[in-house]
């Protein structure tokens, strides 16, 4: 049977026995030899656990039978344990909270919820706070503990477990420290871990206590330190994720937002912040990457050097090569904080960590990590997990990883210190070469009609088995392959640069408003010029003409590039490039209102492509010619042109590449819908545009989809279908916002709101 705790205290039982014996305090004092004042303290609960000999004397004076005597002795013993519990020992005391603590409102609310959550029998509420070095996990936990102190009348304890040191505190030693803080004498300390854990749990049973376990090393270290009761609470901080720790609530601490980072820096600087200027302080907060440790170092450096200005420190920190060196103040060094995590890594993970600093982009996946590390994909996954577990990498959506900016600088510093120049140069070449092959052969060629399904040397590693997968790879890795392209250009690898730029010709139509196409095709044109190949140079100039025609909307520059392309293509006999230049010139001339010239240019381009048997580009010219006719008010002719185009796209024997047909069909269909609307055939136009916008969404043509949705919305409004019109405008706004065009999105939302 489970023993039932006595509902009465020692004070209440003693008072009842005295009243039953009809004795006053003075009479019992005289009979027992215990002072009346001591007796009064006992009965009033001020002395809850008198010594055994005192209790025996009282039992004799009260003439208690054996059962009553035993009960009184046990109650006194329990009281002595409680006295040990509440006795201030100075051990495991909670550190002070910093006065300039800033932000973390949501995180503090999380700790408050943890404390006030419903108790579950037999389970202590445990909160695990994780995050990389420098994020202020300890400072946050201490702040939270001070804020919650009133909720824990039985005590708040803090223990540093030294999880990042070479020798973390063992669980048995940690228990000994906590037990001493609870009043257990060394002579009463159990010798082994299970007994210490049992005594620890028994002392905390039913108590409202908060235990802060800082800097935890492992699940094995933590488990024996968790109370078994439902009233206590535990906050654990760790750089490691401690994924095997069961029954805990998790909080991942992130960098401070810029506003809170600036506020913290202002608080550290105090009165002098006014003289430093808001702009300089914001720049310093940006350099810190939101790490409270970096902000404290920056603030302390300025406070300790009154002659420095914040602007001067901004200039010092602008140099990435010396930034880590500058982020130190006394014994506070940001590199030391990262170094403690680095020392915890296995040798293979250290090497991968260093080498990942040379990845050109801001994030990467396991395939690229494997190339950088010179290891298998399986080993890369294991090492990446270790790096994430220690907070040296951040893992995001869809299996991608990234450094914090300062951690990347630390990784670069370790690479320079531990790897030779030759090793670093070879690694840069390996990574850049792989990225260019992936972008050019494995991904980019997917979209060229003549290539069909590519079979590049690394296709098995990335499993790009469809245009959709190739599209995604190029988009999410754009910073990486673009960085590799820049490296190749600076290294004089002209053929590789030109091959990559050419492989992007067709893909660029799928991502036409990406900001980097000007750089890609400029590098391509420069590479072709260096190789002395005017035909391929004309091709790249045509792509630059397209960039200024579509994403940049710079029509005069478009015409300048097409003139250069026609000159080079004519001298080299590149008729395809002559036709492309006329096509791009036609687009610019149409938008400049020079419609007769535009129609002539598009007609000339279409004739060349048809004569060459290039039905894919012929279809492009037919569509552009239809647009010129539409803008010229020749709506019936434009409709016939678009219908002819649709017939070609729908004819399996026309010679149009299937992927080009899939891409072009929704555009042609939308143009048919527009012409039907202009001719007053609104019902047919609405049906056609509805189908076209759906196909555009499937083909990932967001800008064209948004514009067609606007046309559809206007036609629906004219038909009196106002609810559907509002919905179409709202959907257009969403699509614009998805591609970052908030101005157009706001305009469409205004149109939706204005619909009657």
Automatic annotation (TrEMBL):
PROSITE patterns: HTH_CROC1
InterPro entries given in the database record: Cro/C1-type_HTH, Lambda_DNA-bd_dom_sf, P-loop_NTPase, TPR-like_helical_dom_sf, TPR_rpt
Domain HTH cro/C1-type: 14-69
Domain of life according to the entry: Bacteria
Stated name of the protein: Helix-turn-helix domain-containing protein
Organism: Microbispora bryophytorum subsp. camponoti
């Amino acid at each position: 049977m489970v023993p039932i705790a006595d509902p009465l205290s020692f004070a209440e039982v003693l008072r009842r026995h005295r009243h039953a014996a009809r004795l006053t305090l003075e009479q019992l004092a005289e009979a027992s030899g215990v002072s009346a004042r001591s007796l009064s303290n006992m009965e009033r609960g001020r002395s809850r656990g008198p010594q055994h000999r005192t209790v025996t004397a009282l039992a004799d004076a009260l003439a208690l039978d054996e059962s009553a005597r035993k009960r009184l002795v046990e109650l006194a013993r329990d009281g002595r344990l409680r006295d040990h519990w509440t006795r201030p020992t100075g051990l495991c005391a909670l550190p002070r909270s910093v006065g300039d603590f800033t932000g973390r409102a949501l995180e503090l609310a999380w700790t408050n919820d943890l404390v006030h959550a419903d108790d579950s029998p037999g389970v202590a509420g445990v909160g695990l706070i994780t995050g990389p070095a420098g994020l202020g996990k300890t400072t946050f936990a201490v702040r939270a503990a001070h804020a919650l102190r009133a909720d824990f009348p039985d005590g708040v304890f803090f223990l540093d477990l030294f999880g990042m040191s070479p020798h973390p505190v063992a669980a048995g030693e940690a228990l000994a420290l906590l037990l001493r803080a609870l009043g257990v004498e060394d002579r009463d300390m159990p010798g082994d871990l299970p007994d210490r854990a049992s005594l620890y749990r028994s002392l905390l049973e039913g108590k409202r206590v908060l235990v802060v376990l800082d800097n935890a090393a492992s699940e094995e270290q933590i488990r024996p330190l968790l109370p078994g009761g439902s009233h206590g609470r535990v906050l654990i901080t760790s750089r490691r994720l401690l994924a095997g720790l069961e029954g805990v609530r998790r909080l991942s601490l992130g960098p401070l937002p810029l506003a809170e980072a600036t506020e913290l820096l202002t608080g550290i600087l105090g009165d002098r912040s006014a003289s430093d200027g808001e702009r300089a302080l914001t720049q310093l907060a940006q350099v810190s990457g939101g790490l409270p440790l970096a902000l404290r170092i920056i603030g302390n450096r300025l406070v300790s050097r009154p002659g420095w200005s914040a602007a001067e420190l901004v200039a010092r920190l602008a140099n990435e090569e010396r930034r880590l060196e500058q982020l130190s103040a006394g014994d506070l060094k940001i590199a030391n904080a990262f170094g403690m995590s680095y020392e915890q890594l296995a040798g293979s993970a250290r090497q991968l960590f260093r080498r990942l600093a040379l990845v050109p982009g801001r994030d990467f996946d396991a395939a690229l990590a494997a190339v950088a590390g010179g290891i298998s994909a399986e080993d890369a996954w294991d090492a990446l997990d270790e790096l994430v577990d220690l907070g040296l990498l951040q893992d995001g959506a869809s299996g991608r990883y990234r450094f914090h900016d300062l951690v990347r600088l630390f990784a670069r510093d370790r690479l320079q210190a531990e790897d030779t120049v030759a090793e670093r140069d070879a690694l840069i070449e390996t990574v850049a070469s792989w990225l260019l092959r992936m972008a050019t052969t494995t991904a980019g060629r997917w979209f060229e009609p003549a290539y069909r399904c590519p079979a590049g040397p690394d296709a098995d590693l990335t499993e790009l088995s469809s245009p959709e997968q190739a599209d995604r790879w190029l988009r999410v890795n754009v910073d990486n392959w673009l960085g590799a392209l820049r490296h190749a250009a600076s290294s004089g690898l002209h053929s590789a640069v030109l091959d990559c730029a050419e492989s992007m010709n067709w893909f660029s139509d799928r991502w036409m408003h990406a900001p980097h196409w000007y750089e890609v095709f400029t590098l391509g044109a420069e590479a072709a010029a260096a190789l002395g190949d005017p035909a391929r140079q004309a091709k790249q100039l045509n792509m630059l003409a397209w960039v200024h025609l579509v994403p940049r909307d710079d029509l005069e520059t478009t015409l300048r590039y097409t003139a250069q392309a026609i000159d080079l293509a004519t001298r080299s006999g590149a008729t395809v490039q002559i036709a492309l230049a006329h096509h791009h010139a036609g687009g610019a001339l149409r938008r400049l209102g020079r419609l007769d010239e535009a129609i002539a240019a598009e007609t000339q381009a279409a004739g060349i492509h048809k004569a060459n048997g290039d039905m894919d580009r012929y279809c492009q010219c037919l569509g552009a010619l239809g647009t010129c006719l539409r803008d010229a008010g020749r709506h019936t002719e434009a409709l016939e042109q678009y219908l002819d185009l649709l017939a070609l796209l729908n004819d399996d024997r026309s010679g149009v590449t299937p992927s080009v047909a899939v891409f072009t069909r929704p555009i042609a269909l939308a143009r048919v819908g527009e012409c039907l609307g202009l001719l007053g055939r609104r019902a047919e136009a609405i049906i056609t545009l509805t189908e076209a916008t759906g196909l555009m969404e499937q083909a990932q043509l967001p800008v064209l989809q948004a514009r067609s949705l606007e046309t559809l919305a206007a036609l629906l409004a004219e038909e009196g279908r106002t609810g559907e019109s509002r919905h179409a405008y709202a959907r257009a706004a969403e699509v614009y916002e998805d591609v970052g065009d908030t101005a157009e999105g706001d305009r469409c939302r205004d149109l939706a709101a204005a619909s009657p």
